[in-house]
Each structure stands twice: as structure tokens, then as C-alpha cells.
Amino acid sequence: MRLCFLTPEPDHPLLAAVADALAPDHGVESLHPDTARATVGSVADVYFPGGGEGA
Question: Least packed by Cβ within 10 Å: which of 5, 23, 24, 45?
Fold first, then answer.
């Protein structure tokens, strides 16, 4: 399964730990929500909206 975290902080300790745990069995990537539309090259099966300031 292909997973994508939409977050301005992909190196956040919790997100990084989850991505590391999922990566052996799934394709995992992170995209910044402000630029995701312009950079998405392929479609993920699941998108996780990330927090940030004000979330």
C-alpha cells in the first residue's frame, strides 16, 4: 500500500517513527501541504493530513 503524509514537518519525531515502522511493508512519502498539488507524481492509496501550527 502507498501512504502519504501531508505535513509541513515530515521530520517530526512521531511522524518519522511511524514512517520508519511502515516503510518495510509499504511505500511511504511525505509532501508539504502547500506544494503537494504541484509535486504529486503518483497517487497514494491513503493520505494522512498532518498538523502544523494552528492544527
Answer: 24
Q: What is the pTM of this model?
A: 0.73
Q: How far apart are CA 41 and CA 52, in angstroms?
A: 23
Q: Tell me, yes or no, whether 55 lies in a domain.
A: no
Judge whether 36 lies within some domain.
yes
User: 8 in a domain, yes or no?
Assistant: yes
Say which amino acid occupies 21: A
**Amino acid, res. 49:** P
Quick check: is 54 in a domain? no
Q: Is the pLDDT of residue 45 over 70?
A: yes
